[in-house]
Amino acid sequence: MALLNGQDIYTGLWWDDVAAQRYFRMDIQGTPSGGSDYAEIYGIYIDAIPGGSDGPTDPLDYIPDELTGIDYILDMHFSPTLGWFQHFHTWTGATWTVAAPDLYQRSNSDTQLEWGQDLADFAVAGGWKFWGATHSAGGAGNPDVTHDLTEAGAVPEPGTFALFGLGLAAVVYIRRRRAA
Q1: CB-based contact 46:123 (threshold 8 Å)
Q2: Of 1-5, 35-39, 140-144, where does mean pLDDT reach its minimum?
Q3: pTM of the predicted protein model
Q4: Over pLDDT 70: what percentage of the chain?
Q5: What's the rounded Cα separation, in Å, for the pair 14 and 11?
Q6: Residues 49, 166: contact at Cβ < 8 Å?
Q7: 26/114 Cα distance (integer angstroms)
Q8: Which residues make Cβ contacts (< 8 Å) with residue 98, sequence separation at least 6?
Q9: Could you write out the three-class secondary structure of the chain?
Q10: Which pLDDT tens digit goes with each residue over 37-72?
Q11: Per-residue confidence (pLDDT) for residue 34, from 0 to 100
Q12: Neighbours of 43 (CB within 10 A)
């Protein structure tokens, strides 16, 4: 399977909150193996609060240059010699703290990548956005390469749901009054 710029993430990204966990899934085009047919980093990049790290100035080169304001990263790295390893990164304002994600798995011949993290680990101010990317950090003077980057998946803030619900209730109330 060769890397196809703009085509590595096959059918997109999914997320869901279940109980006290936030889950993400990324489907990729094929199973990475070695040579040049893999990206170093397969990740979910989350912008949840003001601030965050920017791709071009990121101290670890973990963020694609196209992204800014990233607060959390759930990723899986692939190396032909080491295989898969995964991280949960939290931006502290100057650097990243790194831990193992609470849950991670690969399935369907390593073409479905899944992560789960405690909701308490995410500080969220209003709505939040996330992206999926396949990315190779440059390092040693080499340029960063973003192989594929999804559109931002925006997650509405709870207030948006409340306003929508109030609007629906008002429409129902007005219709019932007119019918009576």
Answers
A1: no
A2: 1-5
A3: 0.77
A4: 79
A5: 9
A6: no
A7: 7
A8: 87, 88, 89
A9: CCCCCCCCEEEEEEEEEECCEEEEEEEECCCCCCCCCCCCEEEEEEECCCCCECHHHCCCCCCCCCCCCECEEEEEEEECCCEEEEEEEEECCCCEEEECCCEEEEECCCCEEEEEEEHHHCCCCCCEEEEEEEEECCCCCCCCEEEEECCCEEECCHHHHHHHHHHHHHHHHHHHHHHC
A10: 667 788 899 998 888 999 888 887 788 888 999 999
A11: 61
A12: 28
Q: At 46, list the tokens.
A: 């989350």
Q: What is the rounded CA–CA span in Å between residue 50 and residue 64?
A: 19
Average pLDDT score, the chain: 79
**Residue matched to tokens 């999914």:** 14
d(C-alpha 6, C-alpha 148), whole Å: 4
Token couple for 167: 């609007």
pLDDT greater than 90 at residue 135: no
Q: Are 67 and 54 in contact (CB under 8 A)?
A: yes
Identity of the residue numbered 46: I
